[in-house]
Amino acid sequence: MNQTLKVSQDTLTVYAPASMGNVGVGFDLLGAALAPIDGSLLGDRVMISVAASGVEYSQTGEWAHKLPSDGKDNIVYQCAEFFLDKLQRQDGVTVCLEKNLPVGSGLGSSASSVVAALYALNEHFGQPFNQQALLALMGEFEGKISGSVHYDNVAPCYLGGMQLMLNASNKACAAIPSFDNWYWVIAYPGISLSTAKMRELLPQQYDKSVAIDFGRYLSAFVHASYQQDAALAVEMLKDVLAEPYRASAIPGYTEARAALAELGMLTSGISGSGPTLFSVTDDLATAEKAKNWLMQHYISEQGGFAHVCKLDKLGTRCV
């Protein structure tokens, strides 16, 4: 299935950025899209064009070798069938996935593929679905592959910025203000962790005091975001639901968090279910020091990487 990418001038190319689910404080309810400050694109791309009939699928990119060898088992192929079924059309499409995000990284890898594919298909067929309807389709399909609907990667990947999940009857999420002077240092160590297995580490029930703390920290973080009170936001950026149970399952995470604090980073956390971590600062020099430390001490396998990022305000787009 891996092959050299050939793009005709009739091909539509869509990019969908990496995302942080949870953002530490907002388990399943907060997500943010990422953009490296060096201008590189951290996310999957999908190329789509007309085919004679059916779905013609191919895959390329750095992480394509980690995908199923049979294209029909790939979520982008299934996205195309899902979309055509929703439209009740028999049109043929050629779809190519450029897989640039590692699987099981905590960077919204599957969401990036799904969002890029459905966005590209919607553009290709003349935007039959508006923004909210397309977001609902993305959530529906993501739910098919993960077992339940979670928008905390899909929503920021599609819409950009930082998104608060609402799950209201007519609105799945809403953008909240972010801190433009924050740098988000992210590091992927090169290993993969199953989201399902990381969820199994969490308790079935939480103590009432933990539930109260979760609500307090999340609501205070959202309040601080609207007030643009960076000091309060940093103080509230705590994960009481997942990190206490997942930290020990991520090799080197606890040590990295301590070292990043010593370097002057304001706070750190787990991106999604890991193993990628994020760390926040408002000083670029400190961010670069943190990135260099992580490159030397946190990345353990070939393919690992670290980036200094801002939030990607654009979300998914044609490129």
Automatic annotation (TrEMBL):
<dbReference type="Pfam" id="PF08544">
    <property type="entry name" value="GHMP_kinases_C"/>
</dbReference>
<feature type="domain" description="GHMP kinase N-terminal">
    <location>
        <begin position="74"/>
        <end position="161"/>
    </location>
</feature>
<comment type="similarity">
    <text>Belongs to the GHMP kinase family. Homoserine kinase subfamily.</text>
</comment>
<protein>
    <recommendedName>
        <fullName>Homoserine kinase</fullName>
        <ecNumber>2.7.1.39</ecNumber>
    </recommendedName>
</protein>
<keyword id="KW-0791">Threonine biosynthesis</keyword>
<dbReference type="GO" id="GO:0005737">
    <property type="term" value="C:cytoplasm"/>
</dbReference>
<keyword id="KW-0418">Kinase</keyword>
<dbReference type="InterPro" id="IPR014721">
    <property type="entry name" value="Ribsml_uS5_D2-typ_fold_subgr"/>
</dbReference>
<feature type="binding site">
    <location>
        <begin position="102"/>
        <end position="112"/>
    </location>
    <ligand>
        <name>ATP</name>
    </ligand>
</feature>
<dbReference type="InterPro" id="IPR020568">
    <property type="entry name" value="Ribosomal_Su5_D2-typ_SF"/>
</dbReference>
<dbReference type="GO" id="GO:0005524">
    <property type="term" value="F:ATP binding"/>
</dbReference>
<comment type="pathway">
    <text>Amino-acid biosynthesis; L-threonine biosynthesis; L-threonine from L-aspartate: step 4/5.</text>
</comment>
<dbReference type="Pfam" id="PF00288">
    <property type="entry name" value="GHMP_kinases_N"/>
</dbReference>
<dbReference type="InterPro" id="IPR006203">
    <property type="entry name" value="GHMP_knse_ATP-bd_CS"/>
</dbReference>
<feature type="domain" description="GHMP kinase C-terminal">
    <location>
        <begin position="226"/>
        <end position="292"/>
    </location>
</feature>
<keyword id="KW-0028">Amino-acid biosynthesis</keyword>
<dbReference type="InterPro" id="IPR006204">
    <property type="entry name" value="GHMP_kinase_N_dom"/>
</dbReference>
<dbReference type="GO" id="GO:0004413">
    <property type="term" value="F:homoserine kinase activity"/>
</dbReference>
<keyword id="KW-0067">ATP-binding</keyword>
<dbReference type="GO" id="GO:0009088">
    <property type="term" value="P:threonine biosynthetic process"/>
</dbReference>
<keyword id="KW-0963">Cytoplasm</keyword>
<keyword id="KW-0547">Nucleotide-binding</keyword>
<comment type="function">
    <text>Catalyzes the ATP-dependent phosphorylation of L-homoserine to L-homoserine phosphate.</text>
</comment>
<dbReference type="InterPro" id="IPR036554">
    <property type="entry name" value="GHMP_kinase_C_sf"/>
</dbReference>
<dbReference type="InterPro" id="IPR000870">
    <property type="entry name" value="Homoserine_kinase"/>
</dbReference>
<dbReference type="InterPro" id="IPR013750">
    <property type="entry name" value="GHMP_kinase_C_dom"/>
</dbReference>
<keyword id="KW-0808">Transferase</keyword>
